[in-house]
Amino acid sequence: MSRPRFVVLALIILAAAASRLIPHPPNFASITAVALFGGAYLTNKRLALIVPLAALLLSDLVLGFYSHMEIVYGAFLLVVCLGFLLQRKRSALRIAGATLAGSVVFFVVTNFGVWAFESLYPKTAAGLLACYVAAIPFFQNTLAGDVLYTAVLFGGFALAEKLFPILRERDLRHAQSA
To answer: What predicted TM-score, i.e. pTM, was given to this entire model?
Structure first.
């Protein structure tokens, strides 16, 4: 990956994560989109995991830490891995599917964490179900935020690649082999 491409991708990820610092409706955030985008575009798997995670951590340093952050970070890393599935072929349909899958993964993992580690629900199947049912109203904003931010990140970078040829990955491989 070229240095200009990496720098632009990293700055986009940092800017999107910083959007958590502006007022927004509950659960309407960029973090799932950041994870998906990082996994899809950062071809070095280590960097694909580290850069989005570092961006999330930086925004959490400003916002403050919270209990069981490890659950949120674990869900975040799973979404980065979903992004890996988009590295070879990105289409609107594949990105939309990965966005929905990322939203669901984040919902399932983080709400399981609430059930498992908090005392709000009994540690029974009925308690787990009650936890998921109680979280459904929040999923609407989660999904809306994920869709919006994913469209902005993927669409914005696709536009940037068209406008600035140096950002195109395939042009870089061709130029390096010539």
So the answer is: 0.89
Type of residue at 147: V
Cα torsion 151, 98, 113, 18: sign: negative
pLDDT in tens, 64-123: 999 999 999 999 999 999 999 999 999 999 999 999 999 999 999 999 999 999 999 999
How many other C-beta atoms can be found within 10 angstroms of the C-beta atom of residue 108? 14
Q: What is the CATH T-level fold of the domain 3-172, as seen in this structure? A: Arp2/3 complex 21 kDa subunit ARPC3 (1.10.1760)
- For residues 110 and 68, the answer to whether their CB atoms sit within 8 Å is no
| Domain residue limits, the chain | 3-172
Residue 139, both tokens: 């999923």
Instruction: Kindly state the tokens that stand for 104.
Output: 């669901």
